[in-house]
Amino acid sequence: MRWLEIIKLRSSRNNTGAFKEILASVDELSQSGLTEIRVYRHAVLESDLSLHLYWETKGPERDGSGLGLHLAQTLKDFGLLDHTIWIRAQRTIKKNNG
User: Fold this and answer.
1) What is the DSSP annotation of 19-55?
2) How far is it, in rounded angstroms, from Cα 6 to Cα 76?
3) Would strands 80-87 and 2-10 be described as parallel, antiparallel, or unpaired?
4) pLDDT at 27 over 90
5) What is the rounded distance in angstroms from the CA atom of residue 38 to the CA atom of residue 29?
6) Predicted TM-score (pTM) above 0.70
7) Cross-strand pairs, 10
8) How far is CA 75 from CA 30, 58, 59, 68, in A?
9) 10 Å Cβ neighbour count for 27?
10) DSSP secondary structure string, 79-90?
11) Cβ(9)–Cβ(79) below 8 Å
12) Which residue has the higher pLDDT, 98 or 64?
């Protein structure tokens, strides 16, 4: 099953450097089933970041993966944190641009 773990950080200061250092350590903490990691920055507020962990396992972890929980614990010192788990509700709909 494919599932998505999202860790959103809302901060009053720009923590991009610290965030990059934390992500650099992810290779050492990687878990089986992790297929991709994407980092997004808010379009206007540069200090707001969203980390997306894409998983393919037998099922989603109810409270988050060990890696996600570790990252959330580490990042909470930088501001407000939201850690959620998502599964796809329906098939992906792709718009045909033809």
Assistant:
1) HHHHHHTHHHH--TTEEEEEEEE-SS-TT-EEEEEEE
2) 14
3) antiparallel
4) no
5) 16
6) yes
7) 80
8) 17, 27, 25, 10
9) 8
10) SEEEEEEEE--S
11) yes
12) 64
